[in-house]
Predict the 3D structure of the following.
Amino acid sequence: MAFRLFVPILAGATLRERLIACIGATVGIALTGMISGFAMGSGPHVALLVAPMGASAVLLFAVPSSPLAQPWSIIGGNTISALVGVTVAHFVHDTVIASGLAVALAIAAMSFTRSLHPPGGAAALTGVLGGPAVAAAGFLFPFVPVALNSMILVALGFLFHKLSRRNYPHVHLPAAGGHGTTDRPPAERVGFRPEDVDAALSALDETFDIDRDDLERLLRQVELQAMVRSQRTLLCRDIMSCDVISVPDTASADEARRQLIDHNIRTLPVVDADDRLTGAVGLRELTRATDTVKGVMSKAGTASPDTPAMSLLPALTDGRSHAVVIVDGERRILGLITQTDLLAAAARVQAPAPFKAVA
């Protein structure tokens, strides 16, 4: 039981994520110091980096989805807190009292400006306890080097996360209704509602380091995984259509349109010369003038025959996709599952058992 104290508490933290964070922090802090050196000059009297940047780097590179790690939190939180610390030190000359007051006022200032950032507490303390270099800089210290360091670090973090294909700044992307209306997406019209999340947060009366919308998205994924687990025996191979109509990527738009209408289907898989799936088209894509379907095809949703059928729900209820293509390891088409296929399977699974008279 005691060893559990040493288990990381961050949900979803993997070795790969931690390695990426280490690389990012190395690059971010080193380059921040170098760029600050070019901007401010060098010498023993110049503070190229302030200590809170190390803590900011932990948040920026290890938990980039945290609300505390977003650009305004880093730049605003550090700068505002450093300004609070310098201001308190200017008026309160007792170091102990000034230290406590600086951190307390920094928390309040960050809360009011929606820039809460834990390293801000260290920035406020640095403004009080920073020594001769900070005292000599005076009210310039919150801006150079603190704000300068923060902006450079955020810019480097933005570039690093783009290169590593991570979402930063973290923006919640709501599921699209798909029809240009205010209706919520189909998957969000059942189960718990947003007000239920708000009520639960209010009942728990605690603060969590996760965005409110991300929390709702996480809970919906939990619901989906629980349903997939309960229906794990129903696989894609059990409900897929096997006689799949497809067209080569060299087919004309007119030919593809004719296939869609003649077979009364909404999604037409597109294959290359080796019969490997390359995309899909529907009437929506074919409204754009083109010589062949290859120029307008969209990315096709795919799954393997052994995928739990109910796990296709998000793809088939996003308001854009009407079918998922079932492929083998070489992307050759084995079958197709439409919204209708999945709905029929779900209705059969959830149907109540027939009534039996008891003698």
